[in-house]
Each structure stands twice: as structure tokens, then as C-alpha cells.
Design goal:
about 400 residues, 14 helices, about 15% strand
């Protein structure tokens, strides 16, 4: 007798080739590993795809709705209908949560969602969405309270969910960390990689602090740019940073980069999206990777840097301490934050000073950097492989489906 494979529909805003952040990387890798044991279909934004089993929905034409959140709901309605035949629906981020919630109700199947971030902890998005932030918050809350299961990408995220959504039964919240593709992300310090970084104006032989991320409030880039002013002038500051959330934060970051560039050489800002191989080469040539986030459920960028054999200086917030081991794979920067959802440091100047001190301490000892880098690679190999993440996710599916 042939065993029937569970059909799982993954609903997501991002999916290759349109990936903008960690959630998109997560869904792409999760789909790949789940296909070994389940019939996986992907429903995504950004138009049709050629990949079998993937349905991409076109966005409504510009101006069709007075607020972009309504355009998101348009696609969510199509996703809900498109999930017909699924045994289980798994949605990712608020963009797809409403589609998953409605699809579960419509087709009478369990809806599981993954918590990559929480709208109540990103109030600065009101700058970006206006009244649409109220809609995104409503959609997320409705989906969480109705979900058969919630996957938190860290224990810190689980605590945040319980606090933000007290009507969600804690027994329905499971922790399954993000994973990392250990073949794709690996140390690349050969001649070809060195030439690739030179083409970007980076000296592969000189010390460098590398930041990778979108220009958004939660990533904390302005704090790092202020901390960088206190570093030795011989240290390169490499920013792979683009896709600003708003014109206001774009202008703030540009002004800080210009100020920093006037005071020191070796400030390299790459604004366009980089191919993975080139980004791998740049990160691999970092002396230390920096993650100054004030909100980070887990931080896939830290896993990517550690997989490249690079130690990390990161904020001790959210799920970051579950990835970066202080004094083993990097340094955690302490932070006291407002309890108003913004994550703003109570002492911004102190946070900047502590970050600068941690970076200076890291850069002062090349032998320790090398040891921490080797420990970083071992940690991701031991704890964050996608094979392990896939098994844990399937266990959640079986639990909510009663299998």
C-alpha cells in the first residue's frame, strides 16, 4: 500500500527569484528540504514562476487601492482560494498570514504560521504604511489567534508572541530555529574571492567590519555608523545595505555615511542587491561581522556570517543570543530597551559606545578572531542545518494535523 504524502501549501510574499530578506531565504530552503517527505506547493507574490509546484500572483495595478496593505489583501484572497486541496497551510509573515487564515477556514484544514517578526514590535512601520499598519497588525493578530500552530524562530520570539498576543495558547507555540545552507555559505578566501572583493574597492588583506541588511529601523544601522567613528582609521567599514523602508531613514543613513567618509578612508557602501556568491566572498573577508539590530527574532545574517567562518559582534536582543555565543563565537553588546514596541535603546549613546568597544576588542586580537571564526562554523554545522529544521517542522505539522 502506498502511503499518501501530506500536501503542504507554503504561502509567502518572497520566493526566488524575488527574495528581499531572511523570511524569503527561510521559505526557499524550507520548501527544498520538506519536499523530501511532503507534497509541497508554494504560493507567492511577485508574479508567475517557472518552477513546478510554485504559483506566483501578480500584484494589482498601481493605484488600484489607496493603501498598499489593501493590495496585499487582494493577493491573500487569491492565495486562500489557490490553497484548495492542501492538507495543511503554512504561512510566513503578515503579508501571507491572512491568506493562510482564510484558506484554513475555507478549506477546513489546519493553518500553521511561522513568526519571523511581529507587527506590534515594529511600530516604525507606520512611517511606511500609514493606516495600512493598522491593517497589517489586524491581519497578523487575527491569523495568530486562529492558527492551529505557531512556529517561533527562537525562544525569544516565543516570549514576544506570548506577550504581544496573550489570547494565543502557549501550548500551540513551538520553537524551530532558522537554518542555513552549509554548502552555499562557506568560507571563501581563495584568489577568485579576493579578486571579487577588490572589484568592490575592498582590500582583502586589511581589517574590515562588514554589515549586511536592509535599511530599516530594526536593523540599527545608524547606531553602527556612529560606533564606527570610534574605530581605528585603518579598519574598513563595508556596508551591503539597500532597500530603505522610507525616504526618511534613507536620508539619515546617507548623511551618516557621508559624515563618516569625510573623517576616514575605507568606507565602502554597496547599495544594490548582490549575488549570493559575491556576498559570500565579501562576508568571508570580514575580520568581524556586525549586527546592530534593535529587533531581531533570530538573525539569519548572523548564521550566514558564522557559516563563512566569521565571528559576530551583535546586539544582545531577541533571538540573537541563541545564535551568537558570547566569548565563543563572538561578542554580545548589552542593551536596555524601551518597552513600547520600538526597541529604542534607553541609553543610545551608551549602546553606541558599548558597540564600538566590542568591535575594538574583537579587532585587537587576530588570533582570537580566527579561533572564534572556526567556532562559529562548527556551531552552525552542529545546530542549524536545514535537515534538522525540516524534521522539526514536519513534527509540528504532524502534531497539528493529528497524525
Amino acid at each position: 500500500m502506498v502511503e499518501t504524502r501530506l500536501r503542504v501549501d507554503l504561502l509567502t510574499r518572497e520566493y526566488p527569484p524575488h527574495v528581499y530578506g531572511g523570511a524569503g531565504v527561510h521559505v526557499a530552503e524550507l520548501a527544498k528540504v520538506l519536499r523530501r517527505s511532503a507534497d509541497v506547493r508554494v504560493l507567492a507574490f511577485d508574479g508567475p514562476r517557472e518552477e513546478a509546484g510554485v504559483t506566483g500572483y501578480d500584484s494589482p495595478p498601481p493605484g488600484a487601492y489607496p493603501n498598499p496593505a489593501l493590495a496585499v489583501f487582494d493577493i491573500d484572497l487569491k492565495m486562500a482560494g489557490g490553497a484548495a486541496g492542501a492538507d495543511l497551510i503554512h504561512s510566513h509573515t503578515w503579508y501571507a498570514n491572512l491568506g493562510g487564515h482564510l484558506g484554513g477556514l475555507l478549506h477546513g484544514v489546519p493553518h500553521v504560521l511561522s513568526a519571523h517578526s511581529l507587527e506590534p514590535l515594529r511600530p516604525w512601520k507606520a512611517e511606511q504604511l500609514g493606516g495600512g499598519y493598522a491593517l497589517s497588525s489586524w491581519a497578523e493578530r487575527t491569523a495568530y489567534e486562529g492558527a492551529a500552530g505557531v512556529i517561533a524562530v527562537s525562544a525569544g520570539m516565543r516570549r514576544d508572541i506570548i506577550k504581544a498576543y496573550p489570547f494565543v495558547d502557549p501550548d500551540r507555540i513551538e520553537v524551530v530555529h532558522n537554518g542555513i545552507d552549509l554548502d552555499k555559505w562557506r568560507p571563501r578566501r581563495d584568489a577568485a574571492a579576493a579578486e571579487a572583493v577588490r572589484r568592490r574597492g575592498i582590500d582583502p588583506e586589511a581589517p574590515a567590519v562588514v554589515f549586511v541588511g536592509r535599511i530599516t529601523r530594526q536593523k540599527g544601522l545608524p547606531y553602527f555608523l556612529r560606533a564606527a567613528r570610534q574605530l581605528d582609521p585603518g579598519v574598513q567599514i563595508v556596508l551591503a545595505a539597500g532597500a530603505p523602508d522610507t525616504p526618511e531613514i534613507a536620508a539619515e543613513v546617507r548623511g551618516l555615511v557621508e559624515d563618516l567618509s569625510r573623517d576616514r578612508q575605507g568606507v565602502i557602501w554597496i547599495e544594490e542587491m548582490l549575488a549570493q556568491a559575491e556576498l559570500d566572498a565579501i562576508v568571508s573577508h570580514a575580520s568581524v561581522f556586525v549586527c546592530p539590530s534593535i529587533y531581531e527574532p533570530l538573525g539569519i545574517v548572523n548564521l550566514e556570517a558564522m557559516a563563512c567562518g566569521v565571528p559576530v559582534v551583535a546586539t544582545a536582543t531577541g533571538g540573537i543570543p541563541e545564535v551568537v555565543q558570547d566569548g565563543v563565537t563572538g561578542w554580545l553588546v548589552p542593551i536596555e530597551q524601551r518597552d513600547d514596541g520600538t526597541g529604542t535603546p534607553l541609553d543610545p549613546d551608551g549602546f553606541v559606545a558599548d558597540m564600538a568597544a566590542a568591535l575594538a576588542r574583537a579587532l585587537s586580537d587576530p588570533a582570537r578572531l580566527a579561533a572564534f571564526g572556526a567556532a562559529s562554523r562548527r556551531r552552525v554545522e552542529d545546530h542549524f542545518s536545514w535537515d534538522a529544521i525540516g524534521l522539526r517542522t514536519m513534527a509540528v505539522y504532524r502534531k497539528v494535523a493529528g497524525l
